[in-house]
């Protein structure tokens, strides 16, 4: 079924375009498609800038959700809401009345919050591991300088230095 999903969506969008064009005229139908695409692009730009500014201010202040356990629910809800708005913008950008309708419905706050929660839950199921505050992140090395990769095997040993000292004497 996944293989034919995009094809089926295209057929449904084409049928919807023909129906709307018969109802309001082809020119108005194309103008509606263009208008919703412009609305989607504007929404993507606004939400993308907002998300980028929040990320920059959090990084500048040195606050991250994994460092502040009490702020995790609020920041997760905000990220989920932003994700749902971005999804709505993407759907509005695609030409087609069905995707536009779904994108517009996603802009209704209670629906957007519900979809955002489902998206966040899906993301947490897909990426279940969380970093602990001491774990390695970008630019930091973790245990043993492995760049954040931790292995379960520990090999004990000792270092034997067989080279003569380099103090200028041979």
What brief labels describe this structure?
170 residues, mainly alpha, elongated
Q: Please, could you describe this protein's structure?
A:
The protein is built from 5 helices and no strands. Helix 1 (5-24) crosses helix 2 (26-61), helix 2 (26-61) runs antiparallel to helix 3 (72-93) and helix 3 crosses helix 5 (109-126). The protein has helices spanning 5-24, 26-61, 72-93, 97-106, 109-126. The longest helix is centred in the N-terminal third of the chain and has 36 residues, at 26-61. With 170 residues, it is mostly helical. The chain has a domain at 32-63 and 71-129. The radius of gyration is 26 Å and the shape is elongated.
Largest sheet: none
Q: What share of the residues lie within helices?
A: 55-70%
Provide the residue-averaged pLDDT.
76
The span between the termini is 76 Å
Alpha-beta content class: mainly alpha
Order of helices and strands: HHHHH
Oligomer: single chain
Strand coverage percent: under 5%
What is the number of E strands? Answer: 0
Number of helices: 5
The coarse silhouette is elongated
For the CA atoms, what is the radius of gyration?
A: 26 Å
Q: Which stretches are low in confidence, meaning pLDDT under 50 for 5 or more residues running?
A: 67-72, 131-148
